Amino acid sequence: MTARRRKKYRKYLGKRYARRGYNDRNRGAGNRGGRGMSGWRFKKQKRIAFEKYYKQIIEDKKGFTTPNLKRDITAINIGDLEEYFEYLLDNGIVSMEDEYYVINLMDLGIEKLLGKGDISRKVKILVKKASKNAIEKIKAKGGEVIILEQ
User: Fold this and answer.
1) Domains identified in the chain, total number
2) Structural domain boundaries, residue 29
3) Percent of the chain scored above 90 by pLDDT?
4) Please, which residues have CB within 8 angstroms of residue 41's CB and are 6 or more apart in sequence?
5) Is pLDDT larger for residue 118 or for residue 53?
6) Locate the Large ribosomal subunit protein uL15/eL18 domain: which residues (predicted)?
């Protein structure tokens, strides 16, 4: 029975070239799949370490979100309206109609009314969207919120 012959590449291990030819071929970042952490998803050891310490970053890496859904909505709280009420009244943004102060938030470029804070006056607010909490607070003070369809 013949002895098992070792593979030829074993004799090159530990040497300068190690069966890879001249060194220029093995020098660049392309040989490593990018420098450092780039391409980490395809480098097994780096991926394992990354997943261990940064799970929250990796969790949501699948799927596709349309660019249209990432639009920011400008919003304002009821407390902020109360804080700037005098300024808005002086500049003619707030008008008086019967017993209500009328505020058109669409003219200010604000799309949504949120419910944080309180308001001390009867107001009629024209807005595109409003939270349930905001509507309840304004109705409790005797005011009303009108949702505009646009």
Assistant:
1) 2
2) 22-63
3) 23
4) 47
5) 118
6) 76-146
